[in-house]
């Protein structure tokens, strides 16, 4: 698998120390946030199983009305006390979890791009919540505020 790198972000392939917990062949991180989460999942003794981009959720894009596939960032099974819980986890910068705000400093093109991303992400997240509920799991969005 070739990794299309964006020089603005820390990207690479993470090699789990606890391979028996990892589902999949490669853990590709596309940001320092994802790398931090991978390290946490790998090292946390309460995490029983985890995977990266191994859950695919179909959704309809509000932009083009067509079916697309959403690769959820992570899947984890965590022991919480006497219970075991499953989570689908999306990792995003906090700013991308809020509705975009227009400002005088932003170009019109940037504002339109952010609005499109916002509606598409919300369609993905709604589909992921429904998928998680159907599969006895919970969908969470984690930001840098949760990781650091």
Which CATH architecture would you pick? 3-Layer(aba) Sandwich
CATH class: Alpha Beta
Question: Please, what is the average pLDDT?
Answer: 93
For the biggest β-sheet, the strand order reads 2-4-5-6-7
Q: pLDDT under 50 segments (min length 5)?
A: none
Report the count of strand segments. Answer: 7
* CATH topology description: Trna Endonuclease, Chain: A, domain 1
Structural overview:
The protein is an alpha/beta fold and 148 residues long. It has one domain (12-147): 3-Layer(aba) Sandwich (Trna Endonuclease, Chain: A, domain 1), CATH 3.40.1350. Helices cover 29% and strands 34% of the residues. It contains three helices and seven strands; from the N terminus they run βββαβββαβα. The strands form two sheets. It has a five-stranded mixed sheet, sandwiched between helices. Strands 1-3 form a two-stranded antiparallel ribbon. The mean pLDDT is 93.
List the helices and strands and how they pair.
Blueprint: E1 12-14, E2 22-23, E3 27-29, H1 32-43, E4 47-60, E5 67-80, E6 83-91, H2 108-134, E7 138-142, H3 144-147
Parallel strand pairs: 2-4, 6-7
Antiparallel strand pairs: 1-3, 4-5, 5-6
